[in-house]
Records
---
Amino acid sequence: MSETLRRAVASGRVGHAYLFCGPRGVGKTTLARVLAMALNCPERGDDGEPCGSCDTCERIWGGQTALDVVEIDAASNRGVDDARDLRERAMYAPSEEGRYKVYIVDEAHMLTREAWNALLKILEEPPPRVLFVFATTEPQKIQQSAAPILSRCQRFDFRRIGVSDIVDRLAHVLTQESLEAPPEALRLLARRADGGMRDALSLLDQVLALTGGEITAESVRSVLGLVEEERYLALFDILRENRHGEVFRFVESLLDEGYDLVEFYHGLVDALRTALRGALDGDLPDLRADLRDAWLERVRGVLPADLVRMLALASELESSGSLRRSSNPQMLLEMLLLRLAYLDRTVSLEALLGGLGGAPPPDG
């Protein structure tokens, strides 16, 4: 994506309107700023890369006032009058020859139908050296309110950032600050960010502020309200050994210690997935050694088919969203855990025949 835009800048074949789509915090506005820097940098290289150090680049990168680069929050400037004002300003030429006027419209899906209609004409017949970048997390809303706009824009879809890439970036940021953190703590932050680099960096700042720079897996769990992995191991023992009566005491202990049940539920789904992966793959490389050994020990002898059914049953609350909306999440969680504990286990044909006193079937 960045390579495509870099080549467009280098060749002078930049479009007049781009639509950046994707989840929040994955770099849509950042890439729009880099594109604006590349178009207006006086020291730009032949390959289309901005220098990043000149006054123009620094002002654009910092989101400061720049004569030819304007960032607009469509959530608060969404009406037809705002769009008409933007259209009129776009008619003026850039401040210097060779520059581009770049309008970065964030949360573009918030614009009203009338506002889009006001912009349609200028997108159909754009002035020279004027570029629009529309960033949105919900492109389907633009499709509903202003379908003709989509055909006037070059669309780029941003994906969520992988956990390993986020971990590498967090480690780099800490190194720049002469700090460090164990990989497990960074993985917890990365998974919580759900593919958003901006959210991951915000969470890191939050943890640093509350821990004074001493980052551990335990401090991250405490700050983010995450449940310790050992609790899920204890719960798995309860479910695996059919100790149904302990379910109520287990959930009550979570409430007594102030844990959020919705957060605990999300961790439960992750724990069952961990157990299933361990049963199928025989390894859990993302976990620290003691947790990896503990999970692999527990899933030994548990059939993957049973774990698949447990994970499918647990996922029902996620798909329906009932736990988050419920006025009594404790009861829903208790019923889920009891259903998991009472879930019938798969019996192999050999074990069944052996229990009946018969011989196992011959091979082949």
---
Amino acid sequence: MQRLHDAEAAAREIVARTGGEIRLALPLGLGKPVRLVNALVKLACDDPSIRLAIFTALTLEPPDPGSGMKARFLGPAKDRLFGAYPALLYAELLRRDALPDNITVNEFFLLAGRWLGVAPMQQAYISANYTHARDVLIAQEPNVLAQLVSEQDGSFSLSGNTDISADLFAMRAEGKLDFVAVGEVHPDLPFMQGPGAVLTPEAFHLTLVPEPYELFSAVKRPVDAAAHAIGLHVSRLIADGGTLQIGIGAIGDAVAHALLLRHSGAAPPIQRAAPFDLPAPGGPFEEGLHGVTEMLVGGLLALFEAGVVRREVDGHAIAAGFFVDTRDFYRRLREMPREERARIAMTPVSFTNALYGNEAEKRTARVKARFVNGAMQVSVMGDVMSDTVENGQVVSGVGGQFNFVEQAFALHDARSIITLPATRWSGGKRHSNIRWSVATTTVPRHMRDVVVTEYGIADLRGRSDAETIAALIAIADSAFQDELIDRAQKAGKLPKGFTLPQSARNNWPETVENWLAPYRAELPDFPFGSDFDEIERLLLPALEELSRHAPTLRGKARLLQDALRLPPHPREQEALARMGFDSRYAGGEALALSGALRRVVT
């Protein structure tokens, strides 16, 4: 194994070993060796004779501050929030449509929303289930695999990216693949264990130990009332002694937090006060849960630390394929006692996301499984839209969502739970996420199972179309229920005399707010901590209110009125100063923000 400290020297060595024809496999997300990748891209940009083909997913970038309020909020705090993470040169070139002809980049999963309108990436995106991405990659005959690794006691860990890499290394050991393996060592990566996660130095042709940089930090978003309600509903469906998969984001955090409340006994009083027709709350977890998830998220780690996720299979309480999270998440893993950290097994997604391969053992382990995933929209007949919008623009990707839905139908007593807020804001108006039809389909209606909004739970498995439509309209926002009923009746999918039960006729945002308001102490905006400071946490709901209403003249006028008629927020001047507004010369933007602050004060 050759050990280098200069990324450019490592890149030149790769060019020499491949003859300048580089088919580069890079891990999804955090595992990209940024210094090495940038050095390779720069060499290829400078030398057209080098051909560089990159296959990867989830290129991490902090959000573009842009202009206006977003720039005022994100600009001063960008590095503090997301880490001083070096920009990936190929991503910058793609955004400028300036990638030279001798470099290609294909991704099978995109950072959510970040590549909308970027034609080169939209055209190069490959739609594939996470379990199939490995085979798509192998078909391209990769001759270099480069990855960020952790080093300890003379061994290397693939850390948070065993997802596809562990399988590739195993296949190379079996003589099925041949590639140059390069590890870029990062001191802040936790040394994780698990099947295929730990490798000897002989597994790598090169290791690079460059000047360190901060790992990407995925900033947590606040958990609003709708997300907390969804989390509380989902927590009723999780069976003690069962198996759990949850994803990243506010709803994933809400589900994990609700499970902690359930375990402590704090959730049932909140749940019994719910104004919706729901199953009985669950009790504490006497047997505990076993985690099987493609992504190890902060909420699942918190459940592990609290002893909720503790049911072991082969000595492991969690099996996961990758992680991208906050700096605090990485620190907790690094500082965890080694024997405790070893109970978290980093595995390939061919293990977590599929039943085939050791199927009997997986079936025995994955009892009473609940696979919880998010969606953008759901049709009243149960089609799920999660990754692509009407005009074909890819928001993110299929990832492993379909894999887990498929498992839910293949396993005994397993359920797929799709979560989404009942409405979204766009153009200054609310729109229903429960639709008559959806433009694109991630999960087809013949695999409909459980759907949860803030207004309740729709159990759809084995139901007729009429029963499915009625159940989904019952958890839609009441502003849109009559329109959906009318469409269904005109299409002959609901009886002419159909009426919703009265218990489903009070599905309004204020109903959820009023239900949860007495329990705000138990339902914080950031149940698992935040990198935002106190003033930024104050600003977030105000900026959300501003984004909802400022796009229309009427909405902005009302915000300006509220700035004049409502009492000021106690820390309003600090908030305005943080946004770069001088209170002595406050214009329309600052007044609108003041109105939003005064409107959301609690």
---
Amino acid sequence: MPPKRAARIESRDAQPSQISRSPSHNSRAVTPVKEENQDVADGPVDQPLSPAVQVPDAVDARHDQPISILSAPVYQHLLAQYYRNGEYSDLEVVSNGVVLSVHRIVVCSESPVLKDKCSNLGRDQRLELHQYDIETLDRVLDFCYRRTYSDGEYPDNTAPFPLTMTAGDVNDALEKPLVILNDIEDTEWMGLDPQCEVFDEEGQDGREDEEDNGYLPSPCEIDHTCDDFESLDEEELPANMPSESQGEEEPPQPPYAISLFANFNVYIAAKELQIPALQLLARLRFTHSLRSHWARFADLPTLIEQVYLRTDSSEPLRALISQMVAAEYGKEYSVASKDGIRAVMARNGEFARDVLDTTLRMRTKWADSE
């Protein structure tokens, strides 16, 4: 009998060890771990954010697929303040005597070119980029933090749609050719946000037919609050707009600066620094502004020269401009200065050739459609 008692005591002593290793006997100890692992696999559980990391109202919380390494918009919002005040900065970017304090982890994660340049810096930690003017460089660096930038025409308090695109989507969009479309027909702009749709159930835009030389309404990324086009005083006009009327039928001027040069400079910088999302955003802004303000932009000849001087023959912006000239040049007051366009053609043979080729293709297409 004593041996049985001893065996029973030994079995009782061994029981806790066996239970601690058996999930079927310790559901309270194992289940929480299982649920936690399941949450990690299925995604985080929706919980209120701490007041310290609340997403601001201006940021669209649906932007959950950014192409940036700074994946959450809340991080971009928190980091943006450090770009402006320079706190915790560990890198100085210099352009023509102006120093911008930035954070290496932010700018290098956005641009492989800047990453390579920073890897070869000395102890002074100063990166010189004198090939860019300070306004353009500031917009590029601002985009690295906020995923948008200020250009004087488009609002920068909301996240632009490239934020929701993957890297592959951005590259595919950059490879697509640019064509002449007005804002109502342009699916590249109007189809990206359901709130921007202006078509009724029958597919009409609900507005009366407008003349070809009428002002094209801006898409919903543009602020409409002041687009009443009332007459402005001469001192209120931006520098790139004529203060005197050039004819009775001159199109009205918008009450904001036309950002064609600013966005073109950002586009070139983003292309050289290999920041595809910024390149796409700048190109979309440039394209829409060119379509909308083609007839009223006084510095159009200079812009055309800059595009052909700073890009190669495969540049989509070249094709867009040649299409615009071929399609709109013969229309009344559709070009700010026909003499300026002719002068550019005389100086730049590539531009003249592109316009001629585009005109012949368009005439062939029109003849085939008749």
